[in-house]
Amino acid sequence: MENVRQQGVLDHLMMLERAGTRRTERPQHSRLEELRNAIATLHVKRDRLRIETVAVKNLKQKMDQGMPLEDHDYGDLLQLEKALLTSRHMKLKDLQSAHSLIAGYDLMECNQGKSVCVSLHTAFEGVYVETYNMEVDLTRTVQISRHNIPPYVPLEMIAKQTLQTDFKGFLQTLSLHLNALAGRKQQISLIMELGTVKVIERNQLCNFLILMCKAQEESETVLCTLEYGDLTRYLPTRVTIESENTTLVESQQWRKNRLLLLEFPVHCALLTMRKMGSIA
Amino acid sequence: MEQSYEEEIKILQQEIEMYEAEQENCMRSISTEHGDVMQSILKTVCSHKERGDGVLKKDVSKLITEITNMETDLRRQTKISEISLSECCVKTLEKRKRETIQQYRLSGHCRFLSFQVEFALTEIQDSDSFLRKVTDLNIIVDGAEFKDLGAFVSRVEETKSLYLFFRTLRLFSDRCDERARTFRYFKEKYPDVVCLPEGCSSEVMIIQSPSLTGYTMNIYWSISVSKEGVIKPKIELLMKMPDQAQQMDSQNVMETAPECFRSLLMIFGVEISIECLIKTMHF
Fold this sequence. Notes:
The complex is a heterodimer.
Chain A: H1 2-7, H2 9-24, H3 28-64, H4 77-103, E1 105-110, E2 115-124, E3 127-137, E4 143-147, H5 155-162, H6 167-194, E5 198-202, E6 208-214, E7 221-227, E8 238-243, H7 246-250, H8 252-263, H9 266-275
Antiparallel strand pairs in A: 1-2, 2-3, 3-4, 5-6, 6-7, 7-8
Helix pairs in contact in A: 5-6, 6-9, 8-9
Chain B: H1 2-33, H2 35-47, H3 54-81, E1 83-95, E2 99-110, E3 113-125, E4 130-141, H4 150-159, H5 162-189, E5 194-195, E6 204-208, E7 216-225, E8 231-240, H6 243-247, H7 253-268, H8 270-281
Antiparallel strand pairs in B: 1-2, 2-3, 3-4, 5-6, 6-7, 7-8
Helix pairs in contact in B: 7-8
């Protein structure tokens, strides 16, 4: 401490840093020893795995041929049991992950069956995005005790409608909302990847979006406003096109563009518009 | 020296990975191909195991608890999602340091509709991000109900929207169920008037007059699914009567009936409207 006061904090930090780097410069032989130890451990692991693999293979072969299994087939009954249980465990794990990939949510019992933890997954065009979690209390009335669903998702409204009466329906509606949100959000990041179109306004729910693009020929700025009236969808319900050049906005091409924006995910619509030469 | 050690470590790690992958594949195929045999062996093994070392015993009992919990969770999951998988085949196609590609082949049913789904799942782990995506999605649905689902299925395959597919399947099966229930109800109530030539899950119901031959009313109840997964039931009436009677049809009942039936549906709903039709034949 004396030292610090005399030479200032920076000097002290430098000294600490020097001490730190010195410690990493270990003598050569201990590094070699470490490596030797690692090799030994890996050797043991590999040999164990080799024996296990051969045993599992034998087991499978016997089963394939429909032969009865005997004690010595697997060394030990406990070993055999462990192998079979591991196989069953793996199968169940696969089933669980398949379920979560296709159904959109996982349910897991917790608190000795008093509550369930629900993980709600979201995806857009095959890419899995956020996962939200929720703990639902099942003791008396069904109640959401904890969750990390963002506050701008109308969770309370959805819960009021169906949570007590139709838990299945509740999860489906909630999953629909979260997936639509994920879809709208993902589209915005895909627009940014396009590079030429600017997102000049957006909100947290991603249901209001103003895009600025450049019309290719006139090099005029065009503003596209997208409103998503239905929160369970990732496509807009209203699209308005604005520009100082009113003839451009009313042109047949831009009318078509408006329809494109209504019917396709916004990044796809913009790509098509660019291909057709509407925007830069 | 150091370098040769490091190389040895690398080789050992590769061997370990190889054995692990081999064991995993073997384990997977055991439970996929010999599920029943496995269960019965497990039962006999459980009943006479006494000896064994402590660590192994602990591992086994831990596995048993985990399996029991997973089974409970899966049952609940199946009940709530209404998707039940009868076959689930997962194969690791590629495994590199950061990237894993697995192939999923699933078949099962969602309510009473059966499906087969196949896709590849790529997982890429970077230092700060984790990406999971579905590619090469292939869906097979068969059965009489699905004949108009083609456009929807190809759209789902194209956009890889698995969630949309299963959500739509559920809603679609609701509508099919509703139709079958209605048809069955009328068949049971008026067995000699109502005829279901293709069973109650098809889209046709025929109302025949028991006393007047040649007079029929065909009800076509189709359920269409748009590319985006919007489900729309459509119910239509088609009248048939003998030529002779048609000549006497001064009020043009034949032609106006479908339109009248449409307005009837709008005002009274499906069941009452069909009931009305049956009553006109059943006197």
